[in-house]
Amino acid sequence: MHASQGRSVGLGLALASAFAFGGSGVAAKPLIEAGLDPLHVVWLRVTGAALVMLPVAWRHRRLVLRKPALLAGFGLLAVAGVQACYFASISRIPVGVALLVEYLAPALVLGWVRFVQRRPVTRAAAAGVVLAVAGLACVVEVWSGLSFDAVGLLLALGAACCQVGYFVLSDHGGQGTQAADPLGVIAYGLLIGALVLTGVARPWEMKWSVLGGSADMNGAQVPAVLLLCWIVLIATVIAYVTGVISVRRLSPQVAGVVACLEAVIATVFAWVLLGEHLSAPQILGGAVVLTGAFIAQSAAPKAASGPVASGGPTAAEGELSAGRTAA
Length: 327
Prior knowledge:
Radius of gyration: 19 Å
Largest sheet: 2 strands, antiparallel
Shape: globular
Number of helices: 16
Strand content: under 5%
Number of strands: 2
Strand order of the largest sheet: 1-2
């Protein structure tokens, strides 16, 4: 009963994270159209969230000595890596293609769990990934822009690999008797990510005046600062907090499939708030993604059939010991 309740809470948190991450695009796009560079929006997002989480970082300052590798990995991969690789990729290939490649992450997570951690993976989880990826192909209408750019595709794959790091590190941080507090991990991850992105985005070149005006959202004028607050507080702070905790209550592979809903949610938000209408294939694809996520999350984990690598927990122990989607 307790395990079932924990799984239900984890699923709820994973869905909340998907909604929070998925809403980032509709707030960011008006700012970009108002004159901000995409990388500057990312820098504002991560740096703003890091400032909000500063009191949390101070409270968990001992983590710097206890878990330096975990904090560095989360900041470099889960925060800076995903953002930088994704935005660099969409400068070379269509957004839909980049999204599809990035959301291959759940399949890569399954490979990590099965072949690196040597833990069993249920057939339902694998089937859920296949359905989710197929549905995503329809949601982003990948056939509308199939131009081949090797560098762009490699960057998108880099974003997918960094997203795998997000799920794996979120789970790893909750293992053992000295588990790292998820809020501390997120706070320091955002701080490290902000430092890295400062060198990449060069915010001193940003058009700061845009933040003092308003941005157009489907004909409505919205204060730019309000949109920025949404991106920082909802689409970053709440998204990461709920996402990391959900990974610890579910598992990287299940949380990863549920995270695929981010693309569907982002598309629906764009439809409702930005007037970007959905086509029939996109609606069908969204239904397929939902089906895949449901199949994956409803599958009970198999008992381990052999030893696990590095003394990690078995699948039966896990629902894993106790996870943003991005950008």
